[in-house]
């Protein structure tokens, strides 16, 4: 999606500002301001960043709570956007996260994004509205798993991403187990003692039940009542056993259902795999090493086979439960009949009541033992998970070997663009690789870094981030816009800013993409080279909405 123009209205529907953007190449939101004399002063009071935030709202950014543009609630934003060669008019109100309009038709926030095919996770790596803290993260000095996963998607390293996410999920499970153990230290220390105590109680109850059973047998009642009593005891035990089996089967059905849901929520579907292959075939056919059939077979072995297996298990268990329930209905009716026959005999009735109470006590003890055994299994699970991680790390290495040529292209791109901007003395190196660490069960399994000589300065670090943005703009076909705030250019040598922006202009034109930036006058030695790209010029006397921000 591209944005062609934007109109900003006051709450009373007065048009305050209209800005048109170039459909291809650079569009500059220019701040005709001098650099503040003090670091405590700000030049961001004329509305450049506010305009970018409004554009971001059009591209589906959140429009409520802390994400609302401060002081502009109820201002109205209208825009013309282009999606798949079709032109659409969109409208939203700042602070209203429920009502969106496309071609005058009302949409919810979610439906708005769906209708315009907005992928916020991917856009987050091409819309930069504040000074960066990390190469691929706006929020933290350390990239999280979503940062890395999104970049892998944008660079079409999908098989690597699939294994990466699986490893992270296993690592997260280990963390949960560690937290469980840490918060239940006393339980962990005493769990064996508690289990032993319950087993002793179970033995005692078993003995009491056996004694009661013998007592019922030996009661001085008629032979008919004695036989009926014994039948009743045996029938009661049978009903309890079958009822317990129904519960166990139901739990297993629930577990298999959850496994099916998890499999269906897989990060990649058969359609996604086909799309990935087709995209790759169009863009880089010489780099694809696997046939489509192999990719589909790999996915089916992870998903469809599991779903079919679990579905068969559920079907079998449901059939068993249906049969058991039918048998229980008949046996329960028979139990009621026998109980009614012997209810006239107080001694037998009392013994049966005690027997029932003891049976319930035994079931409660069995439940507690099962819970403790579950705790023990959870505590020991981390060993099994670590073994799974070891297997997946080997797969990760294999996937990187399969994409070595593709990653090599990305490295070469970075090397050449840095050479154009800084000359050949920086020795830039893009590192996308499995993480080499002894802490493999905790450390992020994939590393994405960009380094070059002299990268200790703030300006060189900022330029490094911009160059990485260009890498994504150049290679991905999912996002048609790159948006960068003037804060992204702060501290960069003026002589290099011109070179950097010219590279952005060149890439955006070649790739038919929009490159929208805000720039302050003091960031440039000479603004002549961008004058043809300026779509709006703001200053302290002519702010975006004629108010201070």
Task: Set down the secondary structure blueprint.
Blueprint: E1 2-9, E2 15-20, E3 25-31, H1 48-58, E4 76-83, E5 86-93, E6 100-102, E7 105-107, H2 109-115, H3 120-123, E8 127-128, H4 145-154, H5 158-183, H6 185-218, H7 223-264, H8 270-283, H9 292-302, H10 304-342, H11 346-402, H12 404-422, E9 429-434, E10 446-451, H13 458-475, E11 481-484, H14 494-510, E12 514-520, E13 534-538
Parallel strand pairs: 3-12, 3-13, 8-11, 11-12
Antiparallel strand pairs: 1-2, 1-4, 4-5, 5-6, 6-7, 9-10
Helix pairs in contact: 4-5, 5-6, 5-11, 6-7, 6-11, 7-10, 8-9, 12-14, 13-14
Summarize the structure in words:
The protein is α/β, with parallel strands linked by helices. It has 2 domains: 2-157 and 404-538, Rossmann fold (3-Layer(aba) Sandwich), CATH 3.40.50.300; 172-390, Helix Hairpins (Orthogonal Bundle), CATH 1.10.287. Helix content is 56%, strand content 13%. It has helices at 48-58, 109-115, 120-123, 145-154, 158-183, 185-218, 223-264, 270-283, 292-302, 304-342, 346-402, 404-422, 458-475, 494-510, and strands at residues 2-9, 15-20, 25-31, 76-83, 86-93, 100-102, 105-107, 127-128, 429-434, 446-451, 481-484, 514-520, 534-538. It has a 6-stranded antiparallel beta sheet with strand order 2-1-4-5-6-7. A hairpin with a 2-residue loop joins strand 6 and strand 7 (105-107). Helix 12 crosses helix 14. The longest helix is centred in the C-terminal third of the chain and has 57 residues, at 346-402. The chain is elongated, with a radius of gyration of 34 Å.
